[in-house]
């Protein structure tokens, strides 16, 4: 449903938020290892999120990536999805067909509208603060 860059972006911001809540800055290599993403790919995703003021990048030997605590209440998952994937997740065909619409629907069209609406609602109503607060286990360090 999400592109790989969006999946990695969502994983990265959740991981960074988790660490930031404990006042820990995290390096690119730490993030990439924790979310199981290639480092170069993670760097590109984080660059987009930094440009869009989702994460903050601090340079230098004591630097790293952080998300300011006061921002965690206002950053919604939908912001990240929009930055990395645009709005197509809310409008595209469930089967990936180009010409699917209300007038020429694919077999999943009307059922998929419900799924898309539920997804949009969840993404627009879930903040990073909620994600960090709801995590009872450290999902990034679980093995197999």
TrEMBL record:
GO terms for molecular function: DNA-binding transcription factor activity. It comes from the Bacteria. Pfam families: Rrf2. GO terms for cellular component: cytosol. This is Rrf2 family transcriptional regulator. It comes from Flavivirga aquatica.
